[in-house]
Amino acid sequence: MAHEDDHISDVGSTFDFKGFVLKIFSYWQLILVSIGISLAVAYYNNVRKLPVYRLGNSISIKDDQNPFFTSNTSLTFNWGGTSDKVNTAITILKSRSHNEEVVERLQYYISYQQDGEYQRVNAYGFTPFKVVADSSAYQSQGNTFTITFTDPETFTLKTNFSGPAASVYNYRTKDYSTVVVEPGEFSREYKLNEHIDLPFFSGVLVPTEVAPVIGKPFYIRFNHFDGTVGRFKGISVNPQAQGSSVLNLSLTGNNKPEIVDYLNGTVRVLSENMLERKNLFATKTIRFIDSSLAVKSMELQNVEDELNRFRNENAIIDLSAETSQLNSKLTTLDVRKEEINRQLAYYQTLQDYLQTRQDYSDVPAPSVAGISEGS
């Protein structure tokens, strides 16, 4: 057993590390080629890979009215306060309906491209024109339009149709349709601010601050609406801190102006919609108050009409004056009644006295009962 252990130790100690290293270096040509290929592939991927940007902005959600200072807390009290508004804003900003409205307003279903060093790149914000599409008309979806300026005001609109029919889409009604076209290349010249009215394209190209380069092609394309909304629906919305009224919005993309415009657009749409809902609430409240006042006014008018009928039927012109006169008359009649009762009592007493007495020297005078003594 001891002999076997010594043999194993001898075998392990005979490993020639120097020879191993020299053998590896004998393949230096292959190693250099492998390293060169790896660096070339890495460089090729890096230069072709588009940059990715992540931009963000912050908005503050505040409660502009103290719920305890309302005249009718049962009508306008907001149980959630600012935190409820923050949660509502987060839900709205991430909702599909909100992002659909933003995409429609900004017309982000239109993509702009230009030739890059290795591939076409997003040219939003870097084109000498902006497409203002007629959202009520059908637009060719899936076809790429090439726009090339022949002078600072004139451009050529080109596209290619592979068949006699083209698929078109209405971004307002969300309907698909098909139009008849001529197969092959379509090319026509237009001017900036000139309305383009075609079965597959309807809109206006308005100039921007970017100066056109004669002969440089730009590419526009009407993309799938749902796909565009799904891409921008990935916007990140988070509160700055737990319970904070400040929201941080961020969006990732490969075009800075496009991200900036979308972030500003989504905040603008949110603000306008919140203001619209507030105005709608105020309008409905005013309508409710007006309707309540109208009902009360009608009731008051009915009471006034009934009072007028009572006055006419009873010949009363001034109810308050007539009431005062009646009270005065009643008071006078009460006084007169008391006087008559005293007189009747005197006469009754006098009758009893005369019937029961023989001496009439102590007969009470009539003036005691308010009876004037005649001669």
UniProtKB/TrEMBL annotation:
Protein's UniProt keywords contain DNA damage: no
Coiled-coil regions, chain positions: 293-320
Key words of the record: Coiled coil, Membrane, Sugar transport, Transmembrane, Transmembrane helix, Transport
UniProt entry tagged with the keyword Membrane: yes
Gene Ontology CC terms: plasma membrane
Entries under InterPro entries matching the protein: Bact_polysacc_biosynth/exp
GO MF annotations in UniProt: protein tyrosine kinase activity
Regions crossing the membrane: 25-44
Protein name per its UniProtKB record: Sugar transporter
Organism: Salinimicrobium catena
